[in-house]
Amino acid sequence: MASSQLKVLIVGAGLGGLTLGLLLEQAGVPYTILEKHAGDLLPLGSSISLNQTIQPLFEQLGMLTELEDISKPIGSMTFLKESMNKIGSLDLYSDCVRIMDRPSLYKLLLSRIPSERIITGKRVCDLEQNRDGVLVRCTDTSVYMADILVGADGAYSSIRRCLYRDLRASNLLPKSDMAPLAFDHHCLVGVTDPIDPIYFPELTRPTCDMMVVIGKDKPYSIRQEHHIRSSDWGPAQVEEMANACRDFICPYGSTLADIIDKTPKERMSKVLLEEKGAAQAMLDAVSLANLLHELPSTSAQDIQGTFEAYYKDRVSMGKAAVQGSRHMGRLSGGHKWTETLIRSMFLNILPSKVQQTILDKMLHHRPQATFLPFVPDRGEFKAKSQVQSKRIRSLSGLCLRLFKQSP
């Protein structure tokens, strides 16, 4: 089947939705991205780290140099007590993990998507599936149809809500999916104005060394289950949280007040630390794009087979990512005596070679777009093998044009 015969609708222009759109653009698969926010797309959030699992894709797309330009390699993660006494440190091997501000990454991905592919101000309120495909209705009464619908609209997805409604009506929704989402970490994030390097010289270094302060009995250092209410996330709650944190000691000097005061209020937000983040959504996009490129036809049977293959490819990876995130969250912020003991043992007793082996296994799955020329597999620990598509393609559109313009 020619890829151009397939039509894909993506709901949500976040990092996952943009990555899928970018890949479908290169695969020659027609797609449209519906974004609920009207007007210009605003890149929100603070920082995000990308490890070697996703960097090969950026190299394939001719974007690795730009990714490196907007990021810094992370050399280590150091854990401190509130007294600033060192608990221990974890070597992250700076060539594997890079950290950047989320808006810069968002702008980089957005720069490769043709503007006509994204329609803003489209809040999906309902969907309907039939033999002809899938139909979505938006709150402004507009309607869109496609062969495949992809929900990339976050934790409180309108697409998931509609699917769960239909599954519940058919008595097919598992009990575990009926419970409301619960998160165990609150975060205050923001994008600051440039901070004077005289006061924070560490910020001028070529590498980023992360500092984690394990507070004791502080308002936002105790893990607890929390069910979401929209009233918890307004400007007043952000200001309340910022004020409660102002006097916290900053490992880079002085207190958090200096950083908070340098951050415009409109760039600050209160968020929940999710256990499966944007990096996993980007990896999901690679797997799905590879399968859609090889889709034999738009028949219900072939589409079902494709999504079964997608589930088989990603379910174990998704579960491992959630478990890994939980363990990392407990390592970096747990307050129970068992968590404190495990943190101390992991950082100070476990040999660095064992730590490296654990990290290497986490980086085993480094997928590339099978329909684009593969880039070299870097590193001593080899990636999981992939089969190259028989219908190989070259870079096209904005990716090719901007790649040729880069120095």
TrEMBL record:
Provide the FAD-binding domain boundaries: 6-185
UniProt-recorded Gene Ontology molecular function terms? FAD binding; monooxygenase activity
Q: Which InterPro entries match?
A: FAD-bd, FAD/NAD-bd_sf, FAD_mOase_fung
Q: Which key words are in the record?
A: FAD, Flavoprotein, Oxidoreductase
**Gene3D superfamilies of this UniProt entry?**
FAD/NAD(P)-binding domain
Q: Name one Pfam family in it.
A: FAD_binding_3
In terms of superkingdom, the source organism counts as Eukaryota
The record's comment on protein family reads: Belongs to the paxM FAD-dependent monooxygenase family.
Name of the protein this chain belongs to: FAD-binding domain-containing protein
**Which organism is this protein's natural source?**
Mortierella alpina (Oleaginous fungus)
